[in-house]
Amino acid sequence: MKGLRNRLGLRFARQAWPDPNTDQLIKATLLPVDEARACWRGWKAANDIDDCTWPQFKILARFSGRLPDVDPACPEIPRLHGMAKALWTQSQMRLNRSAAALDILVEQDIPIYLMKTAALEALDMTKLTRRVTSDIDLMVKRQDLRLVISTLCEQGWGSHEDAEAALHRCRYHPGINLQRGSEEDRNNSDVDVHHQPVHMPFLDDAVINRIWERAIPACFRGRAVMVPAPEELLVFTAMQGIRRFVPSHMSSGMWAFDLAEIVDGKTLDWTRVLEVAAMCKGSWALLGCLSYLKQQLRIDIPDHIPGLLSDQAAGLDEAVMFYAQAPTYGLTKFINLPLRELVLINRQKAFAHTGHHASETW
User: Fold this and answer.
1) Strand pairing partners for 137?
2) What is the pTM of this model?
3) Which of 131, 147, 292, 361 has the fewest other C-beta atoms within 10 Å?
4) What is the per-residue burial (b if ≥16 Cβ within 10 Å, else e) of 29-56?
């Protein structure tokens, strides 16, 4: 009976897997060359580079480095190499501009907890070459949130008049995006300021305090910051990565690269990984992502981990939250999407209700 339940759980978790197009690009980038060739041919037969989405361009930028080995006769090699270099240069310049926000907070002795790409870089767990990103994700303590938002707004990320509205929004959401400059002037920068490391569910203060207590010091481009331990980063990346984006209602698939780097780059304490996933109600998301890495990319995940994740992901509330955020595509999209939207609205209302009462002292 337990074996059947685990198989059904794995099937349910597969909703987090990338759509077929994204899957082929990921495999063309990460699998051995012979298999990568077949995936690349399949992707080219069904897609036109001129019609690629931004998430696909980000994967193509990573793939372009091995394109001469996978498809040496491809006429797109110069174009993709040029695109990758241009996107990488632009993203690095934008990251350096965005890092000015960190300087402002460091000067005021406000603790900063980096997430996503910035955390991977600070932990020296990512290959920056051909990696394209556009912003810095950071978390601050909830009691510092008012000061952080008002300070950044005064310095041009948003406007001073927007500070109270931004703080109000954070009471109903896990964070907010603050931008400075403009795309037209090519001097734009942006930071995502969070008060918790995942989008859903609302994490109470006891959980947040525990996350901060387990943070480790690191350096990001010369700045002293805090970052998640690799075990926390693995869980947070999975929970953030599976979320579908409008209008495609599919995930970007970039989480596969980040998780692969975390798993390959460090010796993980898998007991701690399970503990963090349970604490943040992220077991379904992590099960979906790790099962993809293990089954499709053949990345070394301990055999017993999927079963343990399936066992601890038995709660209905967590399954509903996972279902609401998971990507949807294919023939079932017209059935799944309206239902997912209804469930997501319900989950967001629950987050807002909890967050509103919890934030009265912020």
Assistant:
1) 115, 192
2) 0.91
3) 361
4) bbbeeeebeebbebbeeeeeeeebeebb
